[in-house]
Design a protein that fits this description.
The chain has 138 residues and is an alpha/beta fold. The chain has helices at 2-15, 59-73, 123-136, and strands spanning 50-53, 79-81, 90-95, 107-111, 115-120. 31% of the residues lie in helices and 17% in strands. A hairpin with a 3-residue loop joins β4 (107-111) and β5. The protein is globular, with a radius of gyration of 14 Å.
Length: 138
């Protein structure tokens, strides 16, 4: 299982290229089922943006995302486990539950001016959401 997950991560990482949010022909991998655009922008600042999660099962996805952002910004961005959702300047990974939860390996990525939230039904979905978030930035 671990080897297969690492292989998938390596393949996804090799396909990632910077994308523009303004492009109509967005080529995101994995391809989202639906994209809804709105006004505003979330800016990741390595000295101010926190990468947070509540459930230990999301630690791998949070660590992978922080590693990618650390390389992008040439600084160390460490993920942290929190008890509640940070109010501002955060990337938050959470498990979605209930009837509106995405299917297995699915995710919902909601980006506002103050936070990017990745909601997933399982750790794989959280990782796929993190991959998509990275592709949306410069």
């Amino acid at each position: 299982m671990t080897r297969r997950l690492l292989l998938v991560l390596l393949l996804l990482a090799s396909w990632m290229t910077p994308m523009s949010l303004h492009a109509d022909s967005q080529a995101l991998v994995p391809m989202p089922r639906e994209v809804i655009r709105s006004e505003g922008a979330f800016r990741i600042a390595p000295d101010a943006t926190a990468i947070c999660y509540r459930d230990d099962r999301l630690a791998f996805a949070a660590a992978w995302l922080s590693g990618q952002l650390s390389r992008t910004f040439d600084t160390v961005m460490k993920p942290m486990k929190v008890d509640s959702v940070p109010a501002r300047h955060s990337i938050f990974l959470e498990f979605a539950t209930g009837p509106t939860a995405p299917p297995l390996e699915g995710y919902r990525l909601v980006v506002t001016e103050h936070r990017a939230t990745i909601s997933a039904s399982d750790p794989s979905g959280a990782l796929y959401g993190a991959v998509t978030l990275l592709q949306l930035g410069p």
